[in-house]
Amino acid sequence: MEVIKRKIIFIAVMLLISCSSDDYEDIVLDNFEIELVVPSYFPQWNPAALNNKPTKYGVQLGEKLFTDKRLSKDNTISCSSCHIRAYAYADDNTQAIGIQQRAGLRNTPPIQNLLFMKFYNWDGSKLSLENQPIVPIITHEEMDSSILEVIQKIKNDISYRVLFQKAFGDESITPERIYKSIAQYEYTLISADSKYDRVMNNKEKFTSQETYGYSIFTQKCAGCHSGALFTDQSFRNIGFPVNHNSNEAGRARITGDSKDYMSFRVPSLRNIEYTAPYGSFGQFTSLKEVLDYFDAGVLYSDNLDTIFKNNSNRIVLSEEEKEALIQFMKTLSDTRFISK
Amino acid sequence: MKNLKKYLLLSAISLAIVSCSNDDGSSAANNVTLEFANTFKEKTIVLGGATSTSATVNVSAEGQTHHFSELKYVISNIRLVKNDGNEIPYNANDLDKGATVINQAKPETLNYVLNNIPKGEYKQIKFGLGVRSDLNTLDEVRFPVFYAAAGANDTEMMWEWGTGYRFTKIEGFYESDNKEMSIHTGSTIEDGDDGKQKQGVDAYRDVTLNLPENAVVGSLSPKIVIKADFDKLLSGKSNTIKLSTGTGSDDNATPNIHTAVQMVKFVDNLGGNGTSDISGMFSVVSVK
Hints:
The structure holds two protein chains of two kinds. Chain A folds into two domains: about 45-185, Cytochrome Bc1 Complex, Chain D, domain 2; about 195-340, Cytochrome Bc1 Complex, Chain D, domain 2, CATH 1.10.760.10. Chain A is about 40% helix and about 0% strand. Chain A contains 15 helices and two strands. Chain A has helices spanning about 1-30, 45-50, 55-65, 80, 135-140, 145-155, 160-170, 175-185, 195-200, 210-220, 250-255, 285-295, 305-310, 320-330, 335-340; strands at about 235, 265. The N and C termini of chain A lie far apart (about 65 Å). The model of chain A is unreliable at about 1-5 and about 5-25 (pLDDT under 50). Chain B is α+β, with helices and mostly antiparallel strands. Chain B has one domain. Chain B is about 20% helix and about 40% strand. Chain B has helices spanning about 1-30, 95-100, 145-150, 260-270, and strands spanning about 30-40, 45, 60, 65-80, 85-90, 100-105, 110-120, 120-130, 160, 165, 170-175, 180-185, 190, 200, 205-215, 225-230, 280-285. In chain B, strands 3, 4, 5, 6, 8, 11, 12 and 15 form an eight-stranded antiparallel sheet that branches. In chain B, strands 1, 2, 7, 16 and 17 form a five-stranded mixed sheet that branches. The interface between A and B is large, with 39 and 36 residues.
């Protein structure tokens, strides 16, 4: 009898516990991991993303922060002021423009397929996306704020408190959670539905000019713009006109290696149609200008990429080839991505 | 009644013990002041603008005249070493309580007081020029005081793009036409999330200095005078540097020092290379 009583009490206690944890579970279960649709031929995830997988509310929170002007000192710009969807989350300025029209050092990079990148920023200064959002928040030429200033501004906003609760289990607003949720949102910005992708999946066909462009591309460009993202994610000095701002050294300012001087990450060519101007500080207004420059010959330097060094510092292209290449590059445009 | 007496006695005894240990406390620990004397060889540095006539002018081994208009550096991870070799860290993991920006333009920053150093005889001091990588994350929540001090408009000891602190910031002029020199150092180290990928340059330098005589802490609160000889910037134990102005990767005078390419040479001169040179430009001139 005694044993039975104990059992009943035990069960009752268990019931109570499970009741209370049910409430909690509801939230956790509701905040499910978002299933990301990724073509099989895309590269592996950045390892940091495996520890910060996008969840329903994490992404909602990240998007809200991404578009919140309170991240800047004078509440005039948000991440999305420069990372504009219609431009594949880049913009059309030569160099980024921060608060009070302050000009930044470099061209705004598009935010797409970051889930698969090993490096972030043109010089690859960050290896994890979670380490990135603090940079524009504190940089004088960008948002010129601080993370505590941001938290101070949003902490009494009930809609944020609800989202932090839903995304992370309680209302507390921490820098780490801000960085993580912005990264989660950015991870979901996957562009994989271009005409090129549909051609690869035998759903569409290239025009004859695109086919010709693709063959030129394979011969003359794919050495660097390789793989599903059309970048081998290496850093190269390809002899573009140099940014003489004394803060600029390309990847060398990170590595301290003179071989990296004025080297930049090979850009993905996906949605390249939408991300003009081109070059680390917007040296070229159009793709045609870039190709003309390659054809005419690039600037020589000791650490010029060997592909150029071995070809008299140029990529020889006929006008016909340039036009075909541009048509091929336009097949990398993902209209759904820029308008979703 | 008996009990009450017991309690009273016990309280009296414990009070006595407490007050005893308190007494010991006042002579068991005391302050140590670090005084930083920033010099060109033996001359104290006077800052000045391009055409200043009062600024201290130095001549490098390469024969280049130069003077500074701004001179700042970060000291952290301070440890005092006792005679018996025991190391006493001073808030080594807390930038708010254990790190400071030395600024030649602000005399009050040239003396840094270490509070409550345990009684004893100390023979050596160790400190970092810059901030250790594990603490160099611009963590405003963890270290709001240091973050604010380093980020202030008149300090500018933050390297936004590297999300770390500037370790040294020197502005000045060189040669007769007063070309600008701007030398900034800081770490660019970054590890990937899986620990497999690593990149960047560590500009933190651990400095070890022997004291000319033991610093005796107890009833006395000694002052350790540390000379930072900025003659070594260009004419150091590791590198003899010739400044050049221009836009190439070898031009080192203008702030392409931000580029880690040229920076390490200056870092090794200032803080030592960590192997054959563990003192860099620093030495202890006296213990008072």
